[in-house]
Structures are given as C-alpha cells and as structure tokens.
Amino acid sequence: MTDNLDRYRAPALTRGLVILEYLGRCNTPKTMKQLCDELELSFNKLFRIVYILELEGYIYQDSERHYRLTDKLNFSHSVEVMSSFGASDTCQQLMKEFTWQTNQSCHLATLQQGQVRVIAHQQPEFGPSISARDGSLLNTIKSSSALLLLAMSDDQDSWSLIRNYTLDLPLRSQLCEELIKIKNNGYAEASHDRIIGLNSISYPVYYLGKSVKLVITCPRFAQIPGDENELKALLQQLAENLSAALK
C-alpha cells in the first residue's frame, strides 16, 4: 500500500493544497516571502505553484503584493477563520471603538454547525447595557443576527439554519416577507421576545468582499436617550470596517 502511495505521489499538487489550506487558516494575507518562510519551502518550489493557483482563480495578489484566497473554494475550516478573526486585536479594537462612540454594547455572530453563535462582544465601561456573551446561541427566527444571516447568506448557509424548523404556511410566508425586506434594506431590526423595550439592530460583515459570514449587532433599550439614526450609521460603519479587516 505504501509503495502504491509513493508511486502516485504528486509533490506539486501537495504543495498547492498546503498553500490553499494555510491561507484559509490564516487571518492575514501573505507575501511570497512570508509563504516561503512560514511553510519552510524554497522560492523555486513555490513560485510556479502560486502562479498556477492565481491563474486558475484560487488566489489573487492585492496592490501590496499580498496573496489572498478568492471565494472559489468554500473551506470547511471557514468557521475557524471567523472565530480567529473575532478574537483578533483588530476586531476587538474596532468593536471597542464603537462602544466608546455610542456607549452601547455590540456583539459579533457567525454560523456554526447550523446555529448562530456569538464569537465576540464588547460592552461600554459606563452606563446601562446588555450584550450577548461569547458562545451564546441566538434564536434562528427571532434574533436580528440570525434573520440577517438567513436573508443575506448563500443558499447553503441559509438552508443549514432553517432546516430544523417546521413552519406552517402563514408563518413561512411571513418569514419570507421579512427576509425580503431585510435584504432590500441591507440590515435587520428585531424586538426581544422576552425583554420589553430591548431592540436589536444588525449589519452584515462581508468575507472577501462578497459573502456574508458574520453579523455585527447592537442591542439597545428604546428608552435610553440617543439618536437612533446616528447609532445605525455608526454600526454600519463598524460593519464596513470589519469587512475591510476580514478581506
């Protein structure tokens, strides 16, 4: 068996897969030198492989000569990428800046194994606030985070979220109308089903500038003073900054 494996071994193909998996796991793009150093491979061994991967549309080089993955492949460890990003200093700092500006909390959620899970959150240092904690699971058909993912994710992710829910025809029709509205608006709003006066606003965070893999949400008590339109504008800006950092 070992002899057969050795006979059909394809070193160039193996290195190509290693490059794709490595870029998929990393939270930052890499230069050719960084790839050589971190994968402990020579320039001569990597150059042609990287060139072919770029030619076939699996990776691309940005204006600063860093290599990034395209969305041609849907990596099974994309969950790890999202979790790693949520824990990164860049993500935490952007969310913290939002709490300083608004004195409101915020949390970041993603799809994990058919459920919407919070992977990062920040709370203001002063004033009353409420926030979903890291690891919390959000209601699929009631939370603004999940509704936004249902409305704006690709078909595969949306199906994995809704497949365990059996809805009668009127509820299904109502949900479809709500999702169409959310998609047209570009954000979602929802009132908490158990806490009176608590409303949540969610905006999408784009992965590679195209697919929605994360949602940033601000839960806010309606009675707390503040301009809601200004809050939405700042939350939308946070979502755009997170999308830029996630590329």
From TrEMBL:
UniProt GO MF annotations: DNA binding; DNA-binding transcription factor activity
Taxonomic classification: Bacteria, Pseudomonadati, Pseudomonadota, Gammaproteobacteria, Enterobacterales
Gene Ontology BP term (one): negative regulation of DNA-templated transcription
SMART domains, sorted: HTH_ICLR
Record-annotated IclR-ED domain positions: 73-247
Name of this protein: IclR-ED domain-containing protein
InterPro entries recorded: GAF-like_dom_sf, HTH_MetabolicPath_Reg, Tscrpt_reg_IclR_C, Tscrpt_reg_IclR_N, WH-like_DNA-bd_sf, WH_DNA-bd_sf
Keywords for the protein's UniProt record, in alphabetical order: DNA-binding, Transcription, Transcription regulation
Pfam families reported in the protein's UniProt record: HTH_IclR, IclR_C
Alphabetized PROSITE patterns for the sequence: ICLR_ED (PS51078)
